[in-house]
Amino acid sequence: MKKFKKSLALICLAAIILALAACSNTDGQEANKEGVLATVNGKAIMKEDYDNELAYYRGYVEYLYGEGTWESEVNKDLTYKEYYENYVMDKLINLTLLLDAAEKEGITVTEEEKAHELGTFISTYFDSQEDYKSYLEQNGLTEESLLKNMTDQLMVNNYYIKKIDSLNPSNDELKALFEEMKMNIRVRASHILVDTEEEALKVIERINKGEDFSELAKELSLDTVSGANGGDLDYFNYAQMVEPFSEAAFSLGIGQVSQPVQTDYGYHIIKVTDRVVDEDITVESEKDELIEYYKSNKFRDLLEELKNSAEIVKN
Fold it and tell me: Is 249 helix (H, G, I), strand (E, B) or coil?
């Protein structure tokens, strides 16, 4: 096997496969049976599938951070287990919505597409049919179930192609997106991450009284990697950080310190230390990337529309 079994790719791939498997095509009456966690337009999300998906995310977390970290805190109020319980349910609901919408649009997958997808999968990750069969056995899969999962993935992909991929944004739309994402600007910033807004306000008070930002980052920041460097995050563009963080950082002048900025990680105090504008980066030079951002935004909007019009019942 091409170093696949021992790599993180195995965990990620298995998670994707199980996510796809977790969408049952039961109708509304069957969806009332025992073991159903939720229904999406009458299609069931089963507890067994949800549990399997969650187990793979546990493996993912413990692969990255060590055995036993599943119950440890992402931040003060949330463990990895709690975070992924919500994430997995949202992911399965979204996938079920997309499959349902694809079916209603008459989207189909040809036998040629299925065969090509399976062949690509095998040739990419395995040296032999024996390696491939061993993988199926180790993960409790059959080729039939794998093909079903791949078909679901192709259904969603074909739906995306029909609804989104042919969209052609205008120059004005691309320009607006370029400006919104500040694509020709990079900032260098430092931050101090704490658990609560109250703690953040106390840190800001100490900064205002003259204490050194970098020393406070070393002393207090929950982000110990950047904290060891005085909170320095080096240069980054707008898209590299979560939106609340970037929005705050890109609105500050050099030397300015933010008010508390809340993200999923906690509360940040941000100090901008440099700002660079690259005149060579233009709408035209970034056109391909801008089109991808545009399509991603449209796909997100489409998913929200599907959610708003769907009947979603969590048991």
Answer: helix
Of 42, 50, 112, 142, the residue nearest 87 (C-alpha): 50
Q: Look at residues 23, 17, 22 and name the one whose alpha carbon lies nearest to residue 100.
A: 23
Cα separation, 50 vs 40, in Å, equals 14
- Per-residue burial over 261-293, b = 16 or more CB atoms within 10 Å of its CB, e = otherwise: beeebbbbbbbbbebeeeeeeebeebeeebbeb
For residue 157, the one-letter residue type is N
Please report, for residues 75, 79, 81, the alpha-carbon distance to residue 68 in angstroms, rounded to integers and kept in the order given: 16, 12, 11
Q: Is 221 helix (H, G, I), strand (E, B) or coil?
A: coil
Handedness of CA 178, 183, 189, 192 (dihedral sign): positive
Contact present, 275 and 185 (Cβ < 8 Å): yes
Give the rounded percent of residues in the chain with a pLDDT score beyond 70: 89
What φ, ψ does residue 4 adopt, rounded to 5°?
-80, -40
- pTM for the full predicted model: 0.74
Q: Strands, E, within the chain: which ranges?
A: 36-40, 43-46, 73-75, 78-79, 185-194, 232-236, 261-263, 266-277, 312-314
Q: What is the largest CA-CA distance in the chain?
A: 70
Interval 5-56: pLDDT, tens: 333 333 344 444 444 444 444 444 444 467 899 999 999 999 988 998 898 8
Q: What is the pLDDT of residues 184-214, one digit of tens each?
A: 999 999 999 998 999 999 999 999 999 999 9
Please name the residues in contact with 305: beta carbons below 8 A apart, sequence gap of 6 or more. Answer: none
Q: Alpha-carbon dihedral of residues 175, 177, 179, 183, nearest 10 degrees?
A: -110
Cα end-to-end distance, the chain, whole Å: 42
